[in-house]
Amino acid sequence: MAAPESATTNDLTAVWVMNKTLSDNTDKILELQGVSWFKRKIISSSSLTLYAKHYKSDSDGQEHIDIKQVLSGGISGSDEERTLDWQERHKDDSTFGAVISKSKRMKVDEVEDEFLRNGWTEDTIGNGVICSYVESDTEKSKTTWTAEQIWGFEVINGERRYVRHVKFTGPKGEEIKAKLVYDYYNPVPFLNLTFYSGRRSYSLALEPTLIRLTRRFTSPWLLLILGAAYIISLAFLSRTNSFQTPAEAWVDCTSTYWLANDGCGLNGEACAPFDNSTYDFRCPSQCDSVILQNPRTVGDEQVDYVPLVVGGGDFNKTYRGDSFICAAAVHAGMFSDSTGGCATLELIGNFTNFLPATAHGLSSIGFPTVFPLSYRFTPSNTLRHCADLRNAALAFNILVTWLLFWVLRPKPIVLFWCLVCIGYWHVTLFSQPQGTPPPLDTAFGTFLPALFIAYAFWRLAFRFVLPAFSKAPIEASVWYLAPFWAGVLTNITTDKIPIDRLVGSDIAQRPGAVTALVIIVIILLLIVINQIRVIRKTGWLPHYARWYIIGGLVALVLALLPGLEFRIHHYILAMVLIPGTAFPTRLSAIYQGFLLGTFLNGAAAFGFDSILQTAADLRRDAPIGTDLPIFLTNSSTFDGSTPLLNQTIFWSPIPDGESWDGFALLVDDVERYAGTALNYSLAGLQAGLPHFFRLAFTTNGEAGDFTMPATLWPNGTWVNPLPGPS
């Protein structure tokens, strides 16, 4: 890539890659310098990358150029540390042995040799060239040679390039002249625009203008003061958002008064009281995105992938007790889902015929019979500070990160750590806390290991890309911040993708998940192929391929361990992919921003879950896969003309050799019987209503999977249960 006009001999800070096609062969020079044949072959077959840092020292005021040379595969080459004061410095070089070097800036007219003097661009002539003089330390190296280099910029094949003219003199007076040409490997700012009108050109340098206007605000002391102010402001904002509501008043998005299946015990006694009780509560925002991940049986229906809301369609908006409280409150219009809020819940006990309704963006389902626990809402309550401030906190934190990129512009490593800390604590305190209010002890317990992993991200990838955009703060803010916040808010940005976990059973079960996974894999494959293309150009592909192959083999071994499920959490996916973005391109910057945000979201919202989990860990509330009992009563044997008072339903005994010791029977989704009997009288049921029956085996009081519901309609029709568990 051609070097931009902003790259001059006054500032060589950039990443430069030797262009071997345009450069002269240096093998003879290396041989005369005493470099072994083996080393010369490695050098000739490798790509050479220079990481240059050009600066003036605060301590001595001298101009310095520090260059780290890296060969393909991460092999370190000779490090150049030039101080432009023309003072001799001794060094034991890893490639050339003991040498003596000195460097200075000089005018082109002062260069004596014609080869070294000619060919430079006008800006190089105006700014002066960099002169480097290196000779062998004959006393130590037992050889004699000198290498005089002039560094500057030249137009080669119509493109502006960083070039070194080398004049080498060997041990026997051999003279070799060579030209080393380098490609600019840093993104050229898009916003430094040049327009042409005839022979005249007009420049619109937005990036340098911003840098010049904001230079006064880049003091580290100002950053330190504003950082302290930010932490204090964030603490007060978090206190107002979460900690001024009594902890006992908080409910989360899945809180209910009634548990699934037999969770409330016989006749629901474990979930009492059923009525004559009120509760002032507060809900967080965005509860409509918290959904059932496994089918939940309500009457004769199965509900999944929606918030569980039963009822609310009657005049008083009455909800069944197992409805998600927050989703039901939004459905009832107590507050909006975007802000959360407070309300009062009133338990009213038995209620019959919960009507479905659609309101405020949520749809409830109906339940046509009686249930022992129901509730209604009233807007009056004693709680204050009810609005969820996560949107205000998001706007505040986006503004802060934008100011960091555009105005304060700290060193890249400081900017990186600011992103890490801001993203982590935004998830922890606002967008996706692990509890309500946020459990700070858990948050700090995860924060320290997250910092260690983030440091690895810096060393492996970010230090090679983020500094490349130091002269383009506007562009850097676009490439990094937009995907960064998209990653931090993964719970929102990926909400419509029908994949909750990368687990085979989940993907097979949910409609649209396979299609979504295929699309994601195709997109990811295209990204990986493009990154491989970039890495191959730099010569680092063998190095990265080796490590990714080793990692893949380790993952394969882990995946084959018996009794465990291999689980790739999204924070792990970010850890795997970030090292492959260590190349200064715009796409790498975009990937880094998104992957860093995704990592912080996973770590802060869920902690560092294991890469290996048991089937029980992944089951959630899905069926266990146990044996199912069989109803003997069926549509053929049930006499619908007999009154319920005289009706009894029957089921098969426990098969021989099984470890079960009893049965649990759910009637209208409430456990009404637990014991060893093989029948149940319907005398206590209310006539004129439908009734639903589900049966499970038990052992030591613990129920296995329940059957699908058998349904008895008011007209005496018995509908057999469908096969499979509920």
What does this structure look like?
A hairpin with a 2-residue loop joins strand 12 (192-197) and strand 13. It contains 19 helices and 33 strands. With 726 residues, the chain is α+β, with helices and mostly antiparallel strands. It folds into four domains: 14-186, Beta Barrel (Lipocalin), CATH 2.40.128.20; 216-237 and 389-617, no CATH class; 250-378, Ferric Hydroxamate Uptake Protein, Chain A, domain 1, CATH 2.170.130; 644-719, Immunoglobulin-like (Sandwich), CATH 2.60.40. The model has no long low-confidence stretch (mean pLDDT 92).
Q: Indicate the mean pLDDT.
A: 92
Q: What ranges have pLDDT less than 50 throughout 5 or more consecutive residues?
A: none
Shape descriptor: elongated
Instruction: Report the major sheet.
Output: 11 strands, antiparallel
Measured between the Cα atoms of the first and last residue, the distance is 62 Å
Percent in helix: 25-40%
User: What is the number of helices?
Assistant: 19
User: How many strand elements?
Assistant: 33
User: How many independent structural domains?
Assistant: 4
- Secondary structure category: alpha+beta
Task: Note the beta-strand portion.
Answer: 15-25%
Q: What Rg do the Cα atoms give?
A: 36 Å
